[in-house]
Amino acid sequence: MALSVAAAYQQKLSSGEITPDAAQAQAIEALSRLEGELNALAEPGFTLPFFGRKKEPPRGVYLWGPVGRGKSMLMDLFFDSAPVQRKRRAHFHAFMGETHRLVDLWRNGDAAARRETFPGVKGSDDPIVAVAEKIAGETRLLCFDEFHVTDIADAMILGRLFEALFARGVIVVATSNRAPDDLYRNGINRQLFEPFIDLIKARLQVVRVAGPKDFRLDRLRGARVYFAPVTAATAAAFDALWKNLLDGSQETGATLEVQGRKLRLPHAAGGHLRSSFVSLCAQALGPQDYLALAGRFHTVFLEDVPVLSPDKRNEAARFVTLIDALYEAKAKLVVLAEAEPETLYPEGTGAFEFERTASRLQEMRSEAWIEATREE
User: Could you give all domains of the chain from N- to C-terminal order, each with its CATH number?
Assistant: First the structure.
């Protein structure tokens, strides 16, 4: 039998794996409340008859706060302990990508494909209702990590989708770097998104998890963040740091829309991005792409940076622009390169201009830089 979320958290405290944190304790209190109410409902259903009426399902929980405060860890503990058979934990962007695919299939798929994908779902002119029926039929508890709305396509369907899910008794627990009122801030047609914010605050208990300590940042303090040259040992160390920072989270990928184009980044998890030099600097990307990337990710792992020369001037120019964007955005940077910054562009036309980039790379590997970088 799984430990309760409070007992599992206490076990981590007792073992010294984590240290006491008042903000986390408040989150555990909220998650324990939900866990107890789920226990009272007794699977397989969430609705109980009460004088001929169905009881409202419990309120979910929305944990928000800066990165590195343990929100995902708390979510994992709750998910493991939750007394629900049909439960699902998903990264929010991956879930929304799946939702868009299901909506498209309901609209445009042939009858056989729809029957196979939506078994038992009755015909509906509204694909959002059909998708909600499918999700509710498979999952009674949805746990979302990295709840973060930037895409207008997501923003325009979220309210109707979650209203339909809540109406079908689905309970939601989510983590986010943003308070509900800050979701999709300055987004196109945000006024159409605001009813969804009200829905979140009505159906989920909002808890701020913003303790004074950034646990992920601790893992970068004093750590090597510039690895050179590229060897089996440095590549292994680079990979180990990436996995350590993800802390068990899965790479879900991300897609940035820049001036009508889509930039697909397969190795992303929340605010963390891992990519190769070839993927970011040998492709036809420009300043707007790098600005969007720097705004979206607070930590970037860049691997296989080669020694540069005039015959790679286009790649070098893009690399300079990328580093400038990350620098101005106060992002954390971890690099696996063939040479140290001062010898990355050793000679030839462009070497002199590259000196500023080398200087920035040196600064961005310092502990002072890591301390000063942004959290989301």
Answer: 5-208 (3.40.50.300), 215-372 (3.40.50)
